[in-house]
Amino acid sequence: MTPEALLLDFDGTLVDWRSGLVAGIRAAATEFARLHGFDADEVAARTLAFEAEVFEAHLDAWTLGGMDAFALHGAVWRRAHAEYGVDDHAAPAFAEAHWQAELAGMRRYDDVTPLLAAARSAGIRTAIITNGPGAVQRGKLEAVGLADAFDAVLISAEVGSAKPDVRIFELALAELGVAPERAWHIGDTLAFDIAGARAAGVEGVWINRDGVSRDAAEALPHREIATLAELVPLLARAA
User: Exposed, middle or buried by CB within 10 Å (0-12, 13-18, 19+), for 210?
Assistant: First the structure.
């Protein structure tokens, strides 16, 4: 079945968030190291090693609007100051440097434009479904030139529902005017994207760019792809 709508995850599916994160941490680490007399590469590596732990500790606040990028990165750089035993009064400045460099370093994958073009040609409606603060996610969409590329944009902090909760999927479908069984959701996480899509009655397409193995206990996608390019011929059938 060719879908009437594509629901698309953002980070990791349409944009390489990891390259942006690394750029942001490296930029702030360079200044941190210069100020305190440490090695910049070592600071960057050490900070990257615990960044996911800090993010996980603030996940609920991040997804539902209780924390923005400045606050999250501030928590990362307060942790860095604690790790190195230095006063953290300058943490806000490092958080700002981190965020600006992260935004500048983010890029969309090369297969995004052809997919969106194929969807438009086939008359298939599109929506972003993404977890995070509204200003942050919209800033990232703007930075990679995708702010006006979709028929709808659903951001968890703005709608009060975060993947894998079915409500954010239902809101997207209602805005597009498409029934669940006529939509596909494309995302890179099994726990958030595929589990949420299945619960909402939407076909879940797992984009597995890194070729990782799926654990038997994880949500089972209806379809697995390595690149978005694999979907273009399927969408072209509806044109």
Answer: exposed
Same domain, 161 and 199: yes
pLDDT digits (tens, 9 = 90+) for 39-49: 999 999 999 99
pLDDT at 14 over 60: yes
**Do 61 and 130 share a domain, yes or no?**
no
How distant is the alpha carbon of residue 34 from its chain centre? 31
**Residue 100 domain boundaries:** 17-105
Whole-model pTM over 0.90: yes
DSSP 115-157: HHHHHHHTT-EEEEEE-S-HHHHHHHHHHTT-TTSSSEEEEHH
Whole-number pLDDT of residue 2? 87
What's the number of domains the chain is made of? 2
